Amino acid sequence: MGQHNISSVAHLIAEPVRSVILITLADGSAMSAGALAEAAGVTAQTASSHLSKLLDGGLLSVESKGRHRYYRLAGAHVSHVLESLASVGPVTPAWRTTPNRSAQALRFARCCYDHLAGQISIAVTQSMLTRGFVVEAGERHYALTPPGCAWLQQLGIDIGDLAVGQAEQGRQCLDWTERQYHLAGPLGARLMDAFLAWGWMRRSPATRSVTVTALGWEGLRKHFGVERETCGPD
């Protein structure tokens, strides 16, 4: 990528209103211009101007449904950029110890585009590594092992084209609040879909935060060895 492209993208992301819009969409959702204007605290006209620039810059896509237009990130690669930028520099002690419940909820569990992030995701990833279900493979990747494949099938997860040993099926995503890698890529997305389908977790309708249900804590303890008492807040 040329210097011009890097500077152009950086300029688009750096503007405060546009950064809020992008972060609001970082869970993979699609939202109207009005909803994004409200999230960013600006007028509809101002939001429209910023949305046009993000579309022209290739960071957003838009789809029309009837009279309404809905915006979403142009792809997972945009979410990866946002998470990577957030991970640059130290997480301040104030952020880690903040009494703000919304911030605590995001640190504990949140959507990172199509996969799980936060403290609970780190615990799940470490469990899979410890149990030999995935192994580190090459630079910033995880590979599914034969025991891991069998285990996922026993859980009822359709592994589909997730071939054993292929590193591109699991990606190491640097968690910006924990400074550790969590599982992303197709394998991370399959797990997130399963957690939601089983009722183990619920996505917040208003933020990127994810709530673990009572059924989820039971399943996480049984299948991942992740205990509620040692893994953060409710």
TrEMBL record:
Pfam name, any one: HTH_20
Annotated ranges, domain HTH arsR-type: 1-93
SMART domains linked: HTH_ARSR (SM00418)
CDD domains, per the entry: HTH_ARSR
InterPro entries linked to this entry: ArsR-like_HTH (IPR011991), HTH_ArsR_DNA-bd_dom (IPR001845), HTH_Metal-responsive_Reg (IPR052543), WH-like_DNA-bd_sf (IPR036388), WH_DNA-bd_sf (IPR036390)
SUPFAM superfamilies (alphabetical): Winged helix' DNA-binding domain (SSF46785)
Protein name: Transcriptional regulator
Organism: Paraburkholderia caffeinilytica
